[in-house]
Design goal:
10-stranded mixed β-sheet, about 425 residues, alpha/beta, 12 helices
């Protein structure tokens, strides 16, 4: 009898060992499948650069629709799950890959970057840019694609329809020839230019998409969203500073609903490395490296008509119109005096410099950062409020630039607004 029990015990032990090995093997296979799928998503997109034909634009449109639907998060299993109060970074990308490389390099050197999700929001599908983004390995990464771009609508609205009015034609002549938008010139008598209206549309779409539609972010009730652009660089302690500013605003400035990490000053002095100012939000000063939470976004979104119907192609001036004419809780910014976000763009929509090489600006900013690191100006233990401006001291004169009077643009903008909340 003892022999039988001993033999039975060995069989049970052997069975348990076999079962454990089987489970481990299945887990390994599952991991390989997931990695293979991740790799497939990352590298198997068709080559579609220099797409000028109608068929190519339709193919790109189908591809980005699929990618937007799938909502793939690269490196998802490599890093910890996002918390309810996580910092999410969104980068608005057009097609200046040289600038984008510098931004990504600076992001890779930031402390705690692995705890964030970076969302790259594109209005142009490009293989080289996609490869650059999809090879990021230092944090979770997602790509979203603005679905109404000029690239995917090359000869129809929201792109430029051949039957649209020329920019400089007079309204009377436009009505005579019956071009499509003859009755909707802007404040200065000009008709829409798709390359300008796209910027405002894209900015509005991405915020609606991230706060209210993406599975990974729509339920993060205390998420802090940081807005960057492809021609920015950041300091290594930018996340640390942003968290410190969040804590300080809760203690000393409960009405501060915008946190600003960048300024447009020509020279950077890190003697003010631990100082912040509080001011009514000004589009001319506080739109670079700005951060907002869901409560602020819901306030802004409730004023969608003031954003979308304002004859202004710039998103920030449109936001200022929302602030002045609609918001009950006005936008107040807490601004770090020594910036942690820098603008390196020498060329772009508003810059026509003959030298589009960002190397000089990049070297200058790297020099500033290295000096600040050597003199231990980063990672201050505490932040101090040094000045509070009232509304009379800080006010932008609001004069719209036009470019957004076409009724089709205004309707598209409103239709992109996600009025339901999660």
């Amino acid at each position: 009898m003892p022999f039988i029990i001993k033999k039975l015990s060995r069989r049970v032990t052997l069975f348990a060992a076999v079962l454990l090995c089987t489970l481990c093997f299945l887990a390994f296979i599952n991991r390989l499948i997931l990695l293979e799928y991740d790799l497939h998503v990352t590298v198997s997109q068709p080559s579609l650069n220099n797409s000028d034909t109608k068929n190519d634009s339709k193919m790109i449109q189908k591809l980005i629709e699929r990618m937007n639907d799938e909502q793939i998060i690269l490196n998802d299993m490599k890093y910890e799950t996002l918390r309810n109060d996580s910092i999410v970074i969104v980068v608005q990308v057009h097609k200046r890959i040289t600038y984008l490389r510098h931004l990504i390099q600076s992001l890779s050197q930031a402390d705690d970057i692995s705890k964030t999700l970076i969302i790259f929001s594109h209005d142009y599908y490009d293989d080289e840019i996609n490869n650059l983004v999809q090879n990021i390995d230092f944090c979770k990464v997602m790509q979203i694609f603005y679905p109404y771009s000029i690239q995917t609508h090359p000869d129809t609205f929201p792109g430029t329809d051949p039957k649209d009015c020329d920019r400089d034609i007079s309204k009377s002549d436009a009505i005579k020839i019956k071009c499509k938008n003859a009755h909707f010139p802007d404040l200065y008598g000009h008709y829409r230019e798709a390359k300008y209206t796209q910027m405002k549309h894209h900015w509005w779409w991405k915020l609606n998409r991230i706060f209210d539609e993406l599975n990974v972010t729509r339920t993060l009730s205390d998420m802090q969203l940081l807005l960057l652009e492809e021609d920015y660089m950041i300091a290594p302690d930018f996340l640390y500073i942003l968290r410190q500013m969040r804590k300080l605003s809760k203690r000393k400035c409960s009405f501060c609903n915008i946190l600003s990490l960048g300024t447009y000053i020509e020279s950077t002095n890190y003697d003010s490395y631990n100082k912040v100012e509080i001011s009514p939000w000004l589009t001319s000063k506080h739109n670079m490296g700005m951060s907002l939470n869901r409560t602020t976004w819901n306030d802004i979104k409730s004023c969608a008509k003031y954003f979308c119907s304002y004859d202004e192609y710039n998103y920030d001036w449109s936001l200022q119109n929302v602030n002045y004419n609609c918001l009950t809780n006005k936008l107040f910014a807490m601004i770090i005096k020594s910036p942690r976000v820098f603008h390196i763009g020498e060329c772009g929509m508003h810059h026509n410099s003959e030298n589009c090489d960002p190397s000089q600006a990049t070297k200058r900013i790297q020099f500033v950062i290295e000096n600040a690191m050597l003199s231990k100006k980063f990672y201050p233990k505490t932040l101090r409020v040094t000045k509070m401006y009232d509304e009379e001291e800080a006010k932008d004169s609001l004069k719209p630039n036009g470019g957004f009077a076409d009724l089709r643009d205004q309707v598209l903008c409103l239709n992109m607004t996600t009025f339901n909340t999660f």
